[in-house]
Specification:
The complex is a heterodimer of chains A (473) and B (195).
Chain A (H helix, E strand, L loop, with lengths): L26 H18 L26 H11 L22 H9 L1 H10 L16 H5 L8 H18 L3 H14 L43 H7 L6 H14 L21 H23 L9 H29 L8 H20 L1 H6 L3 H8 L2 H7 L9 H8 L6 H8 L5 H18 L10 H13 L2
Chain B lengths: L5 H26 L7 H20 L5 H12 L4 H8 L1 H39 L4 H20 L8 H35 L1
Helix pairs in contact in B: 1-2, 2-3, 2-4, 2-7, 3-5, 4-5
The chains are: A mainly alpha (473), B mainly alpha (195).
Pfam family, one (chain B): IBH1_N
Protein name (chain B): IBH1-like N-terminal domain-containing protein
InterPro entries (chain B): bHLH_AtIBH1-like, IBH1-like, IBH1_N
């Protein structure tokens, strides 16, 4: 962030340029990036050219720095090297040779991939067939539907348990979840991409994918598990009503027609049985899948959008929400112009900080019930202590300077709220420290909201964190 | 970058908002001292400052809508003096030029897309007379997307996926804007009561 420390901010009187807009590129590239920016964001990231088909969930541009942004592509490129498959273990789905070109170890890694598990869990709500799954890691199992007669069954179960744990960790707490997610995904050999609405599967496959039957029929397919037996394709999808024997036949045809070839690095989307496999169809499928991913994120962001079904209704909600926000901005600027005719916000920030503090304090009771019951809360003491609270810190400072306590509070890490408790205990004696602890508790509020996003005062942070969390999946 | 840390984004936003509001107020007192701004002008000034602050906090390079928002304001010549003060003359010129260019491009693409739409409508009408429910639904979604395109700054140039991504980004920032302005309002009211 290029905002300097408060004392380095330009003086308020006659500035020529306050806000550095960073227009340091000519507008032509800017414009072209305006037209094509989301796509270019996804394609620019990986050096290996894998992203054209969008096998990895496209990271929205503000999620660019997330730990998970690179592993999918990396893993995919590694995937290609596995292509000369060792003979598959017997008993995987009762199809000894067919369609099971990958050793079970890969499957385990696949199963252990927390990102995939989580995405699968997240998307299972969309999946018509995933009704029993819920949002935990349990959704993974029916999707895989392994016959489980394979020798690797035991370890598979263990890995599944792992997946569950990790997804549950990373689900509610994005801050803490990043690390295990990252570690696990780094350790894994591959990462699968979730498919929006369970519609398409992109399996990292080399060119053999295009040799699959291309009946041209578009069917909604679930996420692909190409190393699974053919049987669970049927169980998972239910739209392709093919018998096991038929699958076996086709699988045999496939595997026999597929010579072990050197890995190629550009095909990542594998069509399911019965889907068109020409590049246009694949690209279209990937695009649709990304769109539904965005819709899902928007759905999480827009209040009241959770319950609606159907894209049109959802778009309606989004439109209404954006309109209401824009109208609110209009109204608020009118209100500001009315309330503050001089547009003089110079001595406002102390009020602002107090306001933030007060608006957050009711929340504290819900987030720290023990603290509220036990110790006297600072904001209860505040009226008695009166003005020194605000004045002592902010009166001598100008506008910029008074942001300073906020700075400190924001920059401080919110590891635990013990300092907050300490601040409560000696709040009566020290006003200054008490103030800072207050601010810190405000910040802690923000963290606490990642679990409970209900209130309007801080819902921005909370929702952003949820979005942020989703971005990292 | 900004979206990565919502708290930092909000803080930067607030800093810039206060700064640009200060500039707006300062400009009012210094330049047009004789004739104070009317309510509507003040409102527009607040609106403009908050929008520019939001765009700059988000980073115009990171988010196309931020660029488009500033360009949209720059397109209005009445905003010129204030915008010049807030973002500087050079940036203002660039924004205005960019707005003009993008408008031209969008206009052209709209013409072509309109032509295409008419053609496809004719084709679909010819192919299946009773489009059915799915076709109707698709048409509804298309219409909604068209509305959304008008709402998101710079959305006219976007389609499907990119439009949705921009909307996502924009909604997040808009939420922050509303919240910060609410906070400012509350603070001002308290100040009013105290004073």
């Amino acid at each position: 962030m290029n905002c300097g420390p408060p004392d380095q901010l330009p003086p308020a009187t006659a500035p020529s340029c306050f806000l550095n807009l960073n227009w340091d590129q000519s507008m032509d590239p800017a414009l072209s990036s305006m037209v094509s920016s989301p796509a270019s964001n996804s394609t620019a990231a990986p050096p290996d050219g894998l992203a054209l088909h969008g096998i990895s969930p496209q990271q929205p541009h503000y999620g660019g720095g997330t730990p998970l942004s690179s592993p999918p592509k990396l893993n995919l490129s590694m995937m290609g090297q596995f292509h000369p498959y060792p003979p598959p273990p017997p008993g995987a789905g009762g199809l000894p040779i067919l369609e099971n070109p990958m050793p079970m170890g890969h499957l385990d890694q696949f199963l252990a991939d927390p990102g995939f598990a989580e995405r699968a869990a997240r998307l299972s709500g969309f999946d018509a067939r995933g009704g029993g799954g819920g949002y935990g890691g349990a959704a993974v199992q029916p999707q895989f539907g392994l016959p489980d007669a394979s020798p690797a069954g035991g370890s598979k179960e263990m890995e599944l348990g792992n997946t569950r744990d990790e997804s549950s960790v990373s689900g509610p707490a994005p801050g803490g979840g990043e690390i295990p997610l990252k570690g696990a995904s780094d350790g894994n050999a591959r990462k699968r991409k979730a498919s929006g609405k369970g519609k398409s599967k992109d399996s990292p496959m080399s060119t053999s994918a295009s040799k699959e039957d291309s009946s041209g029929k578009r069917c909604k397919s679930t996420e692909e598990r190409e190393n699974n037996a053919a049987g669970e394709e049927n169980s998972g999808k239910g739209k392709v009503a093919q018998s096991n024997s038929e699958n076996g036949k086709k699988g045999g045809k496939e595997s026999s027609s597929k010579p072990p070839e050197p890995p190629k690095d550009y095909i990542h989307v594998r069509a399911r049985r019965g889907e068109a496999t020409d590049s246009h169809s694949l690209a279209e499928r990937v695009r649709r899948e990304k769109i539904s991913q965005r819709m899902k994120l928007l759905q999480d962001l827009v209040p009241g959008c959770n319950k609606v079904v159907g894209k049109a209704v959802m778009l309606d909600e989004i439109i209404n929400y954006v309109q209401s926000l824009q109208r609110q901005v209009e109204f608020l600027s009118m209100k500001l112009a009315t309330v503050n005719p001089q547009l003089d916000f110079n001595n406002l920030p102390n009020l602002l900080a107090k306001d933030m503090h007060q608006s957050c304090s009711p929340l504290q009771s819900s987030h720290f019930p023990l603290e509220t019951s036990g110790a006297p809360l600072p904001y209860i003491n505040q009226p008695q202590q009166g003005n020194p609270l605000g004045c002592g810190l902010t009166n001598g400072m100008d506008n910029q300077g008074s942001m300073h306590p906020l700075d400190q509070a924001f920059c401080r890490q919110m590891g635990s709220h013990h300092p907050f408790l300490n601040g409560v205990s000696d709040a009566a004696s020290q006003v200054g420290a008490f103030w800072q602890d207050d601010l810190q508790s405000v910040v802690q509020m923000d963290m606490g909201q990642s679990q409970e996003i209900a209130t309007s005062s801080n819902s921005y942070n909370g929702s952003l964190q949820t979005v942020h969390m989703k971005m990292e999946l | 970058m900004a979206m990565h840390d919502p708290r930092r984004f909000k803080k930067a936003f607030m800093e810039r908002l206060l700064l640009s509001l200060q500039v707006a107020a300062g400009g009012e007192s210094s330049s047009s001292n004789s004739k104070p701004m009317g309510l509507r002008e003040r409102r527009d000034a607040v609106r403009l400052s908050s929008d520019v602050a939001m765009a700059s906090a988000r980073g115009p390079r990171a988010a196309p809508w931020a660029r488009a928002l500033v360009a949209h304001h720059a397109a209005d010549p009445r905003n010129a003096p204030l915008l010049r003060r807030i973002i500087g003359a050079a940036a203002y010129h660039r924004a205005a030029a960019a707005g003009e260019r993008s408008r031209r491009i969008v206009r052209r693409s709209q013409q072509s897309s309109r032509r295409k739409r008419i053609r496809s409508l004719a084709m679909s009408a010819a192919s299946n007379v009773n489009g059915g429910a799915s076709a109707a639904a698709r048409r509804t979604v298309k219409g909604r997307m068209r509305v959304l395109r008008r709402l998101v700054p710079g959305g006219e140039a976007l389609r499907g996926l990119s439009l949705l991504s921009e909307t996502l980004d924009y909604v997040v920032c808009l939420k922050a804007q509303v919240e910060l302005m609410q906070t400012l309002c509350k603070g001002s009211q308290q100040q009013l009561q105290l004073g």
